[in-house]
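hey
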């Protein structure tokens, strides 16, 4: 018998084959749309990532609302992927839908601010504790712009990231640690510059490595998720951020905290919940309730330096901004999301369900005797194929197994339960119910029973 992460791999492969056949037989309309899409869409999908699911062809959505969506063949799903965080507070939240309808009659984009800009920036300052804000269309853009501002403000060229990080398609961060040395990620397409010239990379939770990488004073900023979520989850060890922040500060380096996923920790993100004091703060994905937009904030001191950098630069393009950034529609969506959707009450509901989910998954793992664990960042839960949570990106990478993930994901999907296609991330939203969670736990138990 060939085993893998405690699983009988022959059984898993047989199950996967059967599940693919079931999916294909039942989803006639999705199959037909996939066939038509292949005529004019490169890769057969609007974004090539959409081929990364476990399904043999793309699942087409008819409508999505709250914690649920329906596909074009009429099958209903409870969504624990939630657009990989873009719909973390549920699909089409009513206050956002209302704001979009209203703003839709009042103008969509003007390259001028509306009153919402004032309300939103005031709320961002109150909620996240940083006094000055700017906007972007995506978290990728926000990170890209913050790196540019950090370099401009400090006059330093280098940035530091943690091994295994993801901050969007920001070229600078695609540098891995391979055998202890920085190496540009092989999968990165069309990049002709040597990124290792200006990007340093160290393991998360390794204070000595951080200290050594910052010691020469050439690093403009550390760009980090406060808990890593994109290579499986890697949580900071107790006291890590306190010590890391002191090191970063001592070397005159800026700390940029990217909360795009860790906003699952609470209404003020991990930053507020754990008393971090970043110089800059980034949040994209769910901030507009699913409408493309992102925000980034500066401390008072960094805002001053950033504005001085712009003031002192020659006139012309700064390299920061896109035409539709902070458009009227996005601002209305952010206002509605911040005012009525990302509330304390919504988080309280999500935390209780995430706790129920984590406990349920842990008890299944124990009962089925697989060497797996469950890791959590607030409303974000993940099961990982190792007995204890990984402590850094290298450890996390070693336990990823996309083939095994696909077996589990497709089994769940065929039973109306969708989880994130990348590793095993599971989100609950304000519309998720306890019985949704219980169904997911029961199906997880069934799939393990079938392949252990
Ligand atoms: C932490 C983090 N930052 C930034 C991004 C980029 O977000 P987007 O793809 O919406 O630009 C992601 C996407 O997964 C992310 O996880």
């Amino acid at each position: 018998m060939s085993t893998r992460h405690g699983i009988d791999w022959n059984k898993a492969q047989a199950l996967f084959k059967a599940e693919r056949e079931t999916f294909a037989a039942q989803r006639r309309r999705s199959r037909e749309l996939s066939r038509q899409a292949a005529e004019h869409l490169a890769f057969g999908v609007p974004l090539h990532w959409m081929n990364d699911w476990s399904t043999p062809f793309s699942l087409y959505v008819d409508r999505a609302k709250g914690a649920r969506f329906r596909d074009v063949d009429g099958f209903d799903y409870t969504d624990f992927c939630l657009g990989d965080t873009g719909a973390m507070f549920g699909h089409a939240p009513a206050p956002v839908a209302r704001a979009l309808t209203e703003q839709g009659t009042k103008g969509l984009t003007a390259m001028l601010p509306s009153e919402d800009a004032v309300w939103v920036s005031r709320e961002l300052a109150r909620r996240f504790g940083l006094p000055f804000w700017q906007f972007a269309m995506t978290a990728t853009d926000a990170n890209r712009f913050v790196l540019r501002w950090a370099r401009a403000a400090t006059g330093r060229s280098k940035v530091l990231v943690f091994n295994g990080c993801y901050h969007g398609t920001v070229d600078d961060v695609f540098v891995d640690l391979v055998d202890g040395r920085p190496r540009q990620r092989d999968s990165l397409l069309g990049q002709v510059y040597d990124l290792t010239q200006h990007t340093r990379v160290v393991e998360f939770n390794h204070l000595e490595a951080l200290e050594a990488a910052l010691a020469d004073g050439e690093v403009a900023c550390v760009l980090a998720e406060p808990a890593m979520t994109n290579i499986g989850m890697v949580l900071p060890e107790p006291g890590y951020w306190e010590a890391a922040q002191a090191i970063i500060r001592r070397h005159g380096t800026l700390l940029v905290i990217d909360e795009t996923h860790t906003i699952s920790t609470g209404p003020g993100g991990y930053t507020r919940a754990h008393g971090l004091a970043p110089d800059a703060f980034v949040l994209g994905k769910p901030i507009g309730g699913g409408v493309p937009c992102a925000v980034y904030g500066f401390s008072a001191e960094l805002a001053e330096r950033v504005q001085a950098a712009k003031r002192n630069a020659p006139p012309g393009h700064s390299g920061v901004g896109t035409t539709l950034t902070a458009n009227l529609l996005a601002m209305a969506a952010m206002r509605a999301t911040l005012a009525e959707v990302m509330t304390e009450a919504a988080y309280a509901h999500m935390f209780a369900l995430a706790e129920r989910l984590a406990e349920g998954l842990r008890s299944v793992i124990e009962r089925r005797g697989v060497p797996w664990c469950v890791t959590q960042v607030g409303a974000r839960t993940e099961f990982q194929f190792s007995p204890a949570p990984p402590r850094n990106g290298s450890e996390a990478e070693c336990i990823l197994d996309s083939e095994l993930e696909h077996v589990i994901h497709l089994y769940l999907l065929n039973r109306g339960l969708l989880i994130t296609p990348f590793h095993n991330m599971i989100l609950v939203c304000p519309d998720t119910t306890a019985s949704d969670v219980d169904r997911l736990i029961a199906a997880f138990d069934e799939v393990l029973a079938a392949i252990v």
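Residues 171 and 192 are 11 Å apart (CA to CA). The mean pLDDT is 97.
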